[in-house]
Prior knowledge:
About 80% of the residues lie in helices and about 0% in strands. By secondary structure, it is mainly alpha-helical. Helix 3 packs antiparallel against helix 4. The longest helix has about 35 residues.
Amino acid sequence: xxxxxxxxxxxxxxxxxxxxxxxxxxxxxxxxxxxxxxxxxxxxxxxxxxxxxxxxxxxxxxxxxxxxxxxxxxxxxxxxxxxxxxxxxxxxxxxxxxxxxxxxxxxxxxxxxxxxxxxxxxxxxxxxxxxxxxxxxxxxxxxx
Length: 144
């Protein structure tokens, strides 16, 4: 349960909410974590980060092609938007929505700028997720 998480970890997550990195969906993930699966949130976050990094790489490759297939770029953006929504990664989700809109304009330059912002938001979130999970792990080890 979320109550099992230490106050420092919850405080760190609260700061991520207040800055718009996360939304209420992440709170729902925290509530799903119980004593029988201590690493539930860590596993979900890790899988999200791996998948997001792969999709961002795909987006970059698509936009690097001489003839950009904007429908395919939009499809990858939609996939990442869905993954982001599932874990409550609000900032990443919002940039995915922007990228989808920019794809409709068929502008490689705008897509690249939006991808750069998306990538920066993802790396910021990933770094904070890593720090939060390390803090939680340290607290778990301290209570052993």
